[in-house]
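Issue: copy button drops trailing tokens. Both records pasted manually instead:
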Amino acid sequence: MVGLRKYRSHHRHSELTGNPDELGESVVQTVLVVPVVLTFMWLALQATVFMHDAHMASAAASEGAAVASRYGSSEVAGRNAAVRLIAELGATAASSPMVSRQGGDVIATVSIRVPRIAPFFPAVVTRTAREVKERYATEEERNR
């Protein structure tokens, strides 16, 4: 029985310590790998946040342009629609949305602040949407 205890004690000790030439190798590997993995995770998280904010800016610009392009609507109504959607989505506007008419088109531009998690990404994302201005056509004009 005493021999079995000595064997188990010696066997367990050799498993824990491993080869004397490999002592500390796992610590060095961990010290080198963990910062690299964390850096990639932060960059992936920042890219995700940036893309989410870009989609919110696109949606707000599209909404603003669509509302302003309706027959009888105005640029102010489009701007208000973009501001309302930005607030509903929980985004932070970097500047007031701009809605303007250029010929027969309505153009809306929205800028949203992007939270900074990792460096080298823009702090603001800007998106623009263009819609054709609706116009009322009488029955006579449609038949021509």
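Record 2 (pasted manually too):
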Amino acid sequence: MAENNVAHMMTDAIKVYKALFFDLPVAGIRQGLGLADDETTTSAWGGYDAMVRLTSQSIDNLYRTPQFAEATARTLDGFLRWQQVSNALTRTVLTGLTQAAGLPSANETRALQAEIRALREEVTALRGTTERKAASPQVERATTPLKRAAA
């Protein structure tokens, strides 16, 4: 199986080499002279197909090697460790900056938001009682000159 795979890869490599260095330049010259035909286009596409097969087989072989798997695992492990160190440093620096600037903490902000929510509910409840009072008939008040000018 491995020898057959290598033979296919070598065949594809030769097709790619032939297409890049012989078929495509000849096709360009023929097209420039107005002598283009379907044979050159077919051979160019054949070279392209061989290049795609060669690339796919090379990538598949790379993924099958244990050395690639080990190198990838070590790289990912190192990357994740650096990410943890970076996150810890960022938290440390930002905590120090917020304390030095006197900014409120997350807990203080949440407590303030709860107080604002409670005040909003209280104001909404008070508006409901004032709207009921406004619905009752009232005596119209005389307008002052300033209010007439603004209107």
